[in-house]
Every structure is written in structure tokens, then in C-alpha cells.
Amino acid sequence: MLISGFLQPIPDLTPTIPSEDETFAIDPTVAPFETSIIFFYKTWDLYGAFSNFSPHPIQMPDEDGNYVTWFSVEHYYQANKFIGVSNPLAQDCIDKIKSAKSPEEAARMGRLTQRRQPHLVRSDWESVKIDVMYRALKCKFSIYPHLNSMLLSTAGSVLVEASPHDLFWGGGRDGEGLNYLGRLLMKLRSEFLGESSAASENTCIAL
Ligand SMILES: Nc1c(N[C@@H]2O[C@H](COP(=O)(O)O)[C@@H](O)[C@H]2O)[nH]c(=O)[nH]c1=O
């Protein structure tokens, strides 16, 4: 297996993976695993809650700034492919994805429409999809304390979505994928670790 494939640098999104020493210096309460790769994919895996298919509803602002609840990150991500498109069929598609019974169904609907009716996909999708995913993940890992702790507990490890098919969000079968989902989770982990160290510094000053 090409382990190095999981680590290939990408200029616009290089994950910050703190070493064990750095992690301890930032937050001594976090006991990092020895440097390793943590794979996740299916929701029933040990780290399955990292999957976008995990049933954790998120609240995200719509185009008017009103908060809307989505049953999973996957629901939100798939629906975003069609947001802002003036064709009424695009809005129909968003509504159907929003009420999809499962993340699998939401993914199926979003992918099928994208393939069969590409004119319904927003023209800037390829350039905004990473940011859409980042914002959804940030909400998910901010509002569920146990998910936040689980993410922090992986400090020092590389996170890889073990999708054998998805070479953009996943790591691929042999590490040939770009692993953007793992990279975004590592980026968020660094941000949360940075915030907790800043908070503890402020506490020290207050004392
Ligand atoms: N976890 C997981 C998948 N992976 C997810 O699929 C999404 C990519 O969708 P698209 O951009 O439409 O190809 C993204 O959220 C990625 O994390 N796919 C699956 O079929 N089953 C699964 O259990």
C-alpha cells in the first residue's frame, strides 16, 4: 500500500498534523495516539462518526441567513450542488434531498441529478465544494461535544476516509486519493486545538 499517497501535499490545503510533543504543549489533557493513520468510512466503524453519512443533524444558514436543519452533513453537501440555480427543477431537487430518508438516499439523489442533469448544478460548484464541506464539518464538530472530543483524541494521527472509489474526498484503495475529507478534519482539529490552547492562556492571564 502506498502510505505516502495519503500524505501527498496539496498546495491549497496542507493539513497541520501536530506531533505528539506539540500536541501535549498545546493541550496537555489530550493524550495523542502514536503517529499513525486512522481510517474511517462506514458509520459503524470505530471512527464512523467522522463519516459524512453519520446521522448527526446540523444547522446551517440559508441564502437569507435563516438557520435550516439538515439531517446529516451529506444531506447539506449534496443539496448545495443545486443552490442558487434559477431553474425550478433545481429547487425541487434541493427539497427532495432535504427530505431524503437517509444520507445514502441524499447522496444517490444528488449524484444522479448531477450526472443526468448537469445543467442543474451551480456553475461554481467545483470551486466552492471544499468550503461547503468545511463549513458543514465545522458545525458538526462544534455542536456535538462528544464528536469534538473524539476528533481531538486523534491528535498526532493522520485521518483518512478509506473510500476505495472516491479519489477526491477519500484516500482511494492504495493511497492514490487526495483525501480531502481527512484533510479538512485534520485542519479543523488543528483549529480546535489552537482555540483550546488560546482559551487556557487567557485563563492563566485572568488568574
Ligand atoms: N462515506 C461514504 C461516502 N463518502 C462521501 O461521499 C461524498 C462525496 O459525494 P460526491 O461528491 O457526490 O461523489 C462525500 O461526502 C464523501 O465523504 N460515499 C459512499 O458512497 N458511502 C459512504 O459510506
Automatic annotation (TrEMBL):
Q: Where is each NADAR domain found?
A: 39-192
Keyword Hydrolase (UniProt): yes
* Keywords assigned by UniProt, alphabetized: Glycosidase, Hydrolase
Mind listing the GO biological process terms from this record?
Answer: carbohydrate derivative metabolic process
Does the UniProt entry include the keyword Hydrolase?
A: yes
A single MF term (Gene Ontology): hydrolase activity, hydrolyzing N-glycosyl compounds
- Which InterPro entries is this protein grouped with? NADAR (IPR012816), YbiA-like_sf (IPR037238)
Please write the reaction equations for the catalytic activity of this protein: 5-amino-6-(5-phospho-D-ribosylamino)uracil + H2O = 5,6-diaminouracil + D-ribose 5-phosphate; 2,5-diamino-6-hydroxy-4-(5-phosphoribosylamino)-pyrimidine + H2O = 2,5,6-triamino-4-hydroxypyrimidine + D-ribose 5-phosphate
Q: What is the protein's name according to its record?
A: NADAR domain-containing protein
What is the protein's species of origin? Gossypium davidsonii (Davidson's cotton)
The organism that produces this protein has a lineage beginning with: Eukaryota, Viridiplantae, Streptophyta, Embryophyta, Tracheophyta
